[in-house]
Every structure is written in structure tokens, then in C-alpha cells.
Amino acid sequence: MADITDYFIDKFRKGLDQDRVDPRYFRPRAYRNAAVRFRKCSIDDFETRRDILIREAGLNAFLFRADMIPGCDLLSDSGTTTMTIEQWAAMMTGDEAYGSNEGYFEFKSQMGETFGPGLVDDDSLGGSSKSLFIFHQGRAAENAFFSVLKNQLQKGNASFGQHLSKDLDRELRERIELKIRSFSGEETVLTESSCIIPSNSHFDTTQGNIENKGMIPLNMPCREHLANDEEFLFRGNMDIEELDNLLATEGARVPLVYLTITNNTGGGQPVAMSNIAEIRKITKKYNIPFFFDACRFAENAWFIHRNEEGYASRSITEIVHEMFSYVDGFHISLKKDGLVNMGGALVIRNGGAFAEKYPDFTEGLTDYQIMAEGHPTYGGLSGRDIKAISEGLRTIVREDYLDSRIKQVGRFGEQLVKQGLPIIRPVGGHAVYIDVDRFFDGRADDGDFKAISLVALMLIAGHRVCELGLYAFGSYNDGVESPPNPRVNYIRAAVPRLAYEDQDLFSLAEAAGILAENRDKIPGVNVDYGRNLSMRHFKSRFSFKG
Ligand SMILES: Cc1ncc(COP(=O)(O)O)c(C=O)c1O
Questions:
Q1: Is the pLDDT of residue 125 over 60?
Q2: Cα gap 388→110, rounded to integer Å
Q3: E strands within 428-482?
Q4: For the chain, which residues make up each domain, given as ranges?
Q5: What is the atom index within ligand 1 of the atom nearest the CA of 263?
Q6: pLDDT-derived band of residue 494, with 50, 70 and 90 as boundaries?
Q7: Across-strand partners of 348?
Q8: Cα 2 from Cα 376, distance rounded (Å)
Q9: pLDDT at 20 over 60
Q10: Which of 18, 180, 205, 262 has the fewest CB atoms within 10 Å, i.e. is most exposed?
Q11: Would the pLDDT of 188 be above 90?
Q12: Residues 148, 329: contact at Cβ < 8 Å?
């Protein structure tokens, strides 16, 4: 006989299930706070922040002191996680041996469990069968990867001719030529050995590392993304037709194809399993290796689980294993879905297309790693860091964690919309992207960089976000400013893992609402320093116009 408690249990359950429609009664977080950090400053102290911002930081959000931010610091979700008590406990057991520390073996075995069989399967610490390389963060792995790749290509005397094929899609050819001009600052000069590295969208450091080695990074986001299709749930996808055309005509100068999961630069949007499988098919057809930039692999898997047909009953771990079964290797900044404050890794599949094509690569990488990062078993990290990563990789695939995290980011996005901010929809896994072009409703003069002002005013309000648009991705050569192509013009509010509550994020949304109401009054900026520098958004200084 059903008693009254069953009746209420049924009511409670139905209340929880409303969370997708009406967040009046959403689930509690899957965790609770175990340590907190009190603020040093008050949200009311606007004038002090303004002084610091203008005098010390030159309106550059990267140069503003974190301890003077009383609200949300959403500059990055990278390395900003709050660790779990299990991670802190694991750190106490860190083995700081110089060679072959205990944590390395645990890490290697955990990487195998997290990413699936056949990918991290080396039983050697060096040599050509080694598949796992530790780095202190993602970009160190990228730099190592492209440095050694360049050496391998040079050793092989790679020569692909100075002209792009006539059969290359015209629009794609123009994009490649523009890219070459934007970093060579010259006419479209292609050397015999110029390589192209395509991706759905490269992250800025990946792009920087590729360009730094004289290679051409090429973004190929899917059409639904470019068309701003708000109904399409996998806007991180790559444009398959473009990729096929590129590999058919210029495959010889493509050493590998990349996919960033989720697509940070494109809006933090997920990539569908079907897209991953298609890319595998095409890369196999042309015998070209396929890699992930895998920073947010677990968040990507959650979206597949929720939104792609056939995956609702599959666990996150099963989905991750399938995703990674398609690739020949990957690099990862563990500062995101490794759930730690520092760490990175590079994995080359033994017997995969990349290892076959560049058989000396892992030997060269081991040498590089020893010279730049330390012994391969710690790679720039302390033994305690390595312990925290293994524990983080166990937590990150928990569905209750991912549910709390990604739905919180979604609620934050909706709150920004309520406050009148145009955002990229559907909201991705780790961040909300404010569409600067729509925010200024065509009123922004590209040369004015009003997004920099908007970010600066948010800082005065007490919250930090980040410009990822015309300034971060554009370039300045011979007095001419070129916007990124394809055009991206966003402000990113990246939510650190396990760190903020809705109240904090909603407070930021309200401050953003005040700026939206008064957008006509937001000035442009003068660039006082660094306009023509590489990676200029990290280094430049600005002042308000007028
Ligand atoms: C997609 C992507 N790739 C690479 C990186 C670089 O990683 P790291 O910051 O650890 O160097 C980042 C950092 O935000 C990223 O988002």
C-alpha cells in the first residue's frame, strides 16, 4: 500500500526533473564546500579598482591583481579549479623521487582507464614505443609537439611545392592566403615546405605554437556555427566538406588534423561523436593522422550523452573511450578536465597513423622533454601534482559532477540573456560567450576595440572576464588592422570548476546588465602599447578614448 511518503517522494522527484525547463527547484550541487577563501576587498570599492586598472594594468584584464577582485574571476577556467578533499589527501602521498616516482605509474594506469584501451599502453619509460609524455601545462606540450614535428619534417626534406592546388575551394584558398599574409606580413609566400594544420578552431596558444614553427593554422568551424544557428546542439563540429576538399587537394602538406573538444575558441561548444567519426573516416582515406586538443573531453562527452542520439544510456566513461578510439594521439591541458591547478600531457598512440608516419618522433620528444621539462616520469611537475591529477581524472567523469557544472554554466548564460546580453547559444560547457558584435548592434568601430572597454568596466564593477575577439585574434601589420577570419568577436566568461555559486555568477550578470542598458556610453580604447606584438592581448596596455 502506497503511503503518504511515496506521494511526497513522487512530488519531490518531479520537482527535480523540472530543472531543464524552469530552474525554480533545481538539484543541489553534487558536492559541498570543504574550504573557502575570504575576499580581501569589498564590492563597493569601485574607485580603488578603477585606479589599479588604469595605473597598474593599463586596462588589460590579464594585468589586474586577482586579490583585488571581490566578485567572480572568470578570466579563465584553466588551473582555477577548487580541488576535492580526495585530491588534497592524495597530494600528501606524492613521491618526489627524481626518476620513476610512484605517482607516474599510477598516472599512466589512470590515463589508460580514463581514455580507454590501446592509447596509453607503453610499458617502457623511453624509446620509440613510449606513448605518454608529461608536461607542466598544455602549451608546453604543444610547443614540444610542434618543435619535434618541425624537426621530423625537416629531416624528411618535406617539399610540397610553392603553390596551392587549383582544385582547392576558392574560399578556402583565400582564407589560407589571408592567414599567410597575416603572419608573414608579406605577399602570399608559400615555401616549398609550408604545412597546414586544420582544426575546428585552434586555441590561441595552439595557433601561436603552430605559427611560431612557420606552419599555417587553419580553422574550419562547421557552417551551423558560422550561421549562428541557435538550434544546433553541436556547434563545435568541424566542416567535413571543407576538410575533405583540403585533404584531397593539399593533403601532402597536412601533417595532421586537429579537433578541439570542446571548441573553446568557437564558443566552448561540443563536437558530436558523428563528426569525430566522420573526421576519422576522411583522415583514414588520405592516411593523415588525427589528434584531439582534449582539454575539455569530459564536458564534451556529457553533451554527447545528453544530446546525441544513441548515447543516453551510455556512461560518460564509455563515451570518452569511444571518442578517443578514433584518434592517433592527443594533447591535453590537465588544468581543465584534469581538475587540477597545473599539468599537461601528450599521448601518441603506439602503432597509430602518427607513430607510423613519424617513427623517430617519440625518441625526439623524449630528448626534448628531458631538456625542457625534466625526467619523463615527472615532466615539469612535482610528484604531489601528479597524484592530484590521477585523482582528478577519476572525479571528472562523474555524471553528477558534470551535471552540476554544465547546468550551472547554462543558468548563468540564461541570466545574462535576462539582463539583455546577446550570448552564443546553446551555451557550451565551461563558459558563456558574449557576442560583442550583437552587443554593440553594429555600432562598434572595429578599430575602437570597445570589447576591451567593456571588460575594463566589468572589472571596475568587481568581476573579471576576457576579450577573445578582434583584439585577441586580430592582427596589425604595416598600419593595417585585420580582424580574425572567420570573424570571432566575443567576450568570454569562463567558469572555474567547483569554485562559484549561482549567487556569485548572477551578481556578475546584474553588473553586465547595467552595462547593457548603457551601452551607448561605452567608449572605445586607444592602444598605448603592443598593438603589433604577437600574443598581444596578454601584453598590451590601453586607455579609454575621449
Ligand atoms: C583548447 C585549449 N587548448 C590549449 C590550451 C593551453 O593550455 P594551458 O593553459 O595549460 O597551457 C587551452 C588553455 O586554455 C585551451 O583552452
A1: no
A2: 12
A3: 431-435, 466-468, 475-477, 480-482
A4: 27-77+398-544, 91-395
A5: 1
A6: very high
A7: 329
A8: 62
A9: no
A10: 18
A11: no
A12: no
Spelled out in words, what is the top-level CATH class assigned to the domain 27-77+398-544? alpha beta
What confidence tier does 19 reach under pLDDT thresholds 50, 70, 90? low
Atom of ligand 1 nearest to the CA of 296: 1
Give the Å distance between the CA of 229 and the centre of ligand 1: 26
pLDDT the model gives residue 488: 84
Index of the ligand 1 atom closest to the CA of residue 335: 10
Which residues does a 6 A CB cutoff place in the pocket of ligand 1? 78, 137-139, 203, 205-206, 260, 264, 293, 295, 333, 335, 344
Distance of CA 190 to the CA centre of its chain: 29
Ligand 1 center from residue 264 Cα (angstroms): 9
- pLDDT band with cut points at 50, 70 and 90 for residue 177: confident
Tell me the mean pLDDT in the region 101-115: 95
**Domain 91-395, CATH number (from 3.40.640.10, 3.50.50.60, 1.20.1290.10, 2.60.120.200):** 3.40.640.10
3-state SS string for 427-438:
CCCCEEEEEHHH
pTM for the model: 0.94
pLDDT tens per residue, range 365-402 = 999 999 999 988 999 999 999 999 999 999 999 999 99
Q: Whose CA is nearest to atom 15 of ligand 1?
A: 203
Is the pLDDT at 537 greater than 60? The verdict is yes
State in Å, rounded, how far the first CA of the chain is from the last one: 76
By most ligand atoms within 8 Å of CB, the mutation choice from 134, 139, 538 for ligand 1 is 139
Tens digits of residue pLDDT in 147-167: 999 999 988 877 888 888 888
Average pLDDT over residues 34-41: 92
H helix runs in 258-382, sequence order = 273-285, 297-307, 316-325, 353-357, 361-372
Q: Which residues of 112-122 are buried (b: 16+ CB within 10 A; e: fewer)?
A: bebbbeebbeb
Pick from 74, 77, 78, 136 the residue to mutate for probing ligand 1's pocket: most ligand atoms within 8 Å of its CB. Answer: 78
Which is it for strands 257-260 and 290-293: parallel, antiparallel or unpaired?
parallel
Q: What percent of the chain lies above the pLDDT cut of 90? A: 76
In this structure, what DSSP letter does residue 341 have?
S
Query: Of all protein residues, whose CA lies closest to atom 5 belonging to ligand 1?
Result: 138
Question: How far apart are the CA of 77 and the centre of ligand 1, in A?
Answer: 10
Amino acid at 338: G
